[in-house]
Amino acid sequence: MLKIFLNVLLLFITASLFGQKTPYFEAKYDIYYNTDFPQIRKGQLQIDVEKNLTIFHISKNNNSSTESNSAMTSTHYGLTYNIKYDDIESFIEINFNKEYIFSKETHRNNIYYVRDTIYDFNWNLNYSEEKKIGTLLCKKATTYFRGRNYTAWYAIEIPIGYGPYKFHGLPGLIAKISDDTGTFIWTLASYKVNAEKPQFEKNDELKPLMSAKEYYEEVRYQSVTEKQTMLQSKLPKGIKLISVSSDANVRKGIEIKFEWEEEIKED
Fold it and tell me: Does the keyword Signal apply (predicted)?
C-alpha cells in the first residue's frame, strides 16, 4: 500500500511540475561497458509520465577501437579463432501500470523479443553523501540487482522515479549508476521536458515473445550440456566429444543471477 501511495504521489508531483501540456520527459545517457570488448554507447530514456511508461533506447557500440559489440573465442580441430558479431540497436520498454518489461535483445547476431517482470528494487537510501553530476545535486543510494551490487546517484530536484536500463524506484531521476566492479556504468548527459509523445515499440508485429527465463537459460547462458550437444551435432559421424572447457560458461552480462534460480535452490 505504501509503495502504491508513493508512486501515485510521485506521479502527481511530476505532472504538476512539468504541466499537463507536456507530460513527457527525456533523458540521455552515456553508457560504458568495461567488458572483454569495451563498449561505448548512447542511451535515450523517454518517459510518458501520464501513462507511467518508459522506453530506453540503446545505440550501437560507438567504440572506434572495436568492430563489434560481442565476440567469442573458440577452439576447433586444434585451431583457436575469434568470431565477431555485427552490432544492433536495442531497447527496453517498461509499463509500470501493467507491470511488464518488453525488450529487444541481441545475442550472436540474432534478435530476440523478451518479456520480463518488473524487478522490485530494495534501495538503501541511508547515506549522507551528496555530489554533483553535471549541474545536478545528487544523493547516494545502493541496491542489488540480479547478481550485481550497484551504487546510484539520483537528482533530488527532478522527482521522477526512473532511470536507465531497468532501474527505477528512487525519489529522483537516476543521474549515474554503476556496479561495484565498474564494469557497467550509465551517466546522465542531458535531460529535458519533451512536448512530443515517445514512440513505444510493443505491438503485435514484434512476435514471437519469449520469457526472460527462456532467454537467459536457453539463449544467453546455455548450460555446458546444451553447448556440448550443439558441438557434438557439428562433428563428423563416429567422433565423440568427451568434454567441453571454455570461459564462455562464465556469465559476463549485466544480469548474471536470477530469482528463479534461487527458488529452485530453496525447493
Answer: yes
Single-letter code of the amino acid located at 59: S
- Residue 225 included in any domain: no
Residue 107 lies in a domain: yes
Closest CA to 10 of 73, 70, 52: 52
- Strand 110-116 to strand 100-107: parallel, antiparallel, or no bridges (unpaired)? antiparallel
Q: How buried is 253 (Cβ within 10 angstroms: 0-12 exposed, 13-18 middle, 19+ buried)?
A: middle
Q: Write the pLDDT tens digit of every residue in 145-186.
A: 999 999 999 999 999 999 999 999 999 999 999 999 999 999
Dist CA 161 CA 167 (whole Å):
9
Report if residue 249 sits inside a domain: no
How many domains does the chain contain in total? 1
Position 101 in a domain: yes
Helix (H) or strand (E) holding 211: strand 209-211
Contact status, residue 97 vs residue 74, Cβ threshold 8 Å:
no
Domain containing residue 95: CATH number: 2.50.20.10
Contact 78, 99 (CB under 8 A): no
Domain that includes residue 9, residue range: 2-212
pLDDT digits (tens, 9 = 90+) for 108-131: 888 999 999 999 999 999 999 999
Taking phi over 0 as left and psi of -120 to 50 as alpha, with beta for the rest, 165 belongs to: left
User: Whole-prediction pTM value?
Assistant: 0.79
Nearest one of 245, 234, 223 to 73, comparing CA atoms: 245
Do 45 and 29 contact (CB within 8 A), yes or no?
yes
Environment class of residue 29 by beta-carbon count within 10 Å: exposed (0-12), middle (13-18) or buried (19+)?
buried
